[in-house]
Every structure is written in structure tokens, then in C-alpha cells.
Design goal:
Blueprint: E1 2-6, E2 12-13, E3 16-17, H1 18-31, E4 35-47, H2 52-69, E5 72-81, E6 89-99, E7 114-117, H3 123-133, E8 158-160, E9 167-170
Parallel strand pairs: 4-5
Antiparallel strand pairs: 1-6, 2-3, 4-6, 7-9, 8-9
Helix pairs in contact: 1-2
Length: 177
């Protein structure tokens, strides 16, 4: 089980948005812990006056990402707060998965383990910052927000991890622990 909050601004950025980021971040946290993601709860903290079309776009993105990775959004909560209490919309998720590998954690790392990063570190943060600060790059950076391993499955050989997108620690030459 994992819980995370998503407070990204702007809500929409090149390569993603707060809705898909919430789903992918949650399933990635489960996957790096040796679990197959199954269910997600979704809580929304909505600023009074948020355009309904913005909310619809975010929820459509949550639904599309959940379908892509094969998880069900099974429960949730909604709160509306006064203007300026949040930056438009905050999301909180809890993900539940089925453990298929031994529970992982910092104590399971061993001498000789290596950290494998399958994408550029900082790409997502640069895409968001570029939008938020009005910076211009050619080409503009895009977020690499996506589910690790291409969906709701596990990445073989996973030992431990915390999920900056698509980052995992595994024993090299080992296979599943």
C-alpha cells in the first residue's frame, strides 16, 4: 500500500497532467515495492471557482491512465476549499497492490546492488517548471510521466526503490529476488 499527494502547478504540462501523474506515481510506487497495482483511491481538494472543464479533463486523464495500467479507482473523496487555499486542484491517492516479490525497503539493499535509471532524471520537473515559469526552450521539454514497465505489471528483478519516474534498484545478474 502507498499514499501520495500531487500538488503540481500548472495542472497541465507537456507530456502529462496532474491526473495521469497521480495514477502513474501511485502504481510506480507499488511496483518498486514488489507489488502488482490493483486498486486506487482518489481524493480531490478543489479550489472554489475551478472551471468544471478543468476538472473534467483531469478526471478523464485519471480514467485513461487507470485503464492503461489496469487499476481500478474504487473510492474517493472530494472537498471544495475557499479561493486561494490551494493552487486550483490537489490530488491524493492511495494505491493497493498484491505483493508478488518479498517486501522491499532500504534494509534489503546489499553491497553490489546498482541503481538503474531508465530515463533522464529531472525531465518531468523541467517540463513543469518550464510551464510554470513561462520559460521557452527549443524543443520544449516534455514530462516522461508514465507507468514503470509499461503498465500495471512488475518490473522483473525489483528489489527496492522509491519512484522518481522509472527509477529502480535491482541486483544485477540476479533475476527475481
Amino acid at each position: 500500500m502507498t499514499t501520495d499527494s500531487f500538488v503540481v502547478s500548472p495542472l497541465f504540462f507537456p507530456g502529462g497532467d496532474i491526473g495521469s501523474l497521480a495514477v502513474y506515481g501511485t502504481v510506480n510506487d507499488l511496483a518498486v515495492s514488489g507489488a502488482r497495482p490493483r486498486w486506487i483511491s482518489l481524493a480531490l481538494i478543489i479550489e472554489e471557482g475551478l472551471p468544471i472543464e478543468t476538472l473534467r479533463r483531469v478526471l478523464a486523464s485519471v480514467a485513461a491512465a487507470a485503464r492503461q495500467v489496469g487499476v481500478l479507482v474504487v473510492t474517493g473523496d472530494t472537498k471544495v476549499v475557499p479561493r486561494h487555499a490551494v493552487d486550483g486542484l490537489f490530488l491524493n491517492t492511495t494505491g493497493v497492490g498484491e505483493v508478488f516479490f518479498p517486501l522491499a525497503g532500504p534494509t534489503t539493499l546489499q553491497a553490489g546492488d546498482e541503481i538503474l535509471v531508465s530515463g533522464p532524471i529531472g525531465r518531468h520537473g523541467m517540463a513543469v517548471m518550464t510551464c510554470r515559469e513561462g520559460l521557452e526552450f527549443d524543443p520544449p521539454p516534455t514530462s516522461d510521466s508514465a507507468a514503470a514497465g509499461g503498465g500495471g505489471g512488475l518490473v522483473r528483478g525489483r528489489r527496492s526503490g522509491q519512484s522518481p519516474p522509472r527509477c529502480d534498484a535491482r541486483r544485477i545478474g540476479g533475476g527475481a529476488p
